[in-house]
Amino acid sequence: MQKHVLILDLVDDAELIARYEAFHAPGAVWAEIIDSIRAAGILAMDIYRHGSRLVMTMETVDEFSFAAKARADADNPAVQRWEALMAQFQRPVPGTPVGEKWQRAERIFDLALQDVNGQHHDSETE
């Protein structure tokens, strides 16, 4: 299984943010979108919001490919309609290449790796 974290901003407008959240409420996302997510090998997906910043977490099958998902989405009219609808609410984070939206975040900390071989750094020795 793979884990991915992606970030995206929303237009900083309370009414638009409320509408965006309504589109993502339980049962509100179009069935074709849910089907396309699952067909790509995405096992779990969550989106969190802080202000106008979104953070998406995904757990995928080992074989998951962002490129394959993008190709499948490009050939799916329902996904294209959904993306066009969502575009009015979304804006890329700074530094995003033109034509892209969600950006992968780089993991810089993993608790499981902090006690490798029972060793860790003490604040007194830093």
TrEMBL record:
Record InterPro entries: Carb_Metab_Mutarotase, Dimeric_a/b-barrel, Rham/fucose_mutarotase
Residue stretches spanning the membrane: none
Pfam short name (any one): rhaM
GO-annotated molecular function: racemase and epimerase activity, acting on carbohydrates and derivatives
PANTHER family: UPF0734 PROTEIN DDB_G0273871/DDB_G0273177 (PTHR43239), UPF0734 PROTEIN DDB_G0273871_DDB_G0273177 (PTHR43239:SF1)
Name the record gives this protein: L-fucose mutarotase, type 2
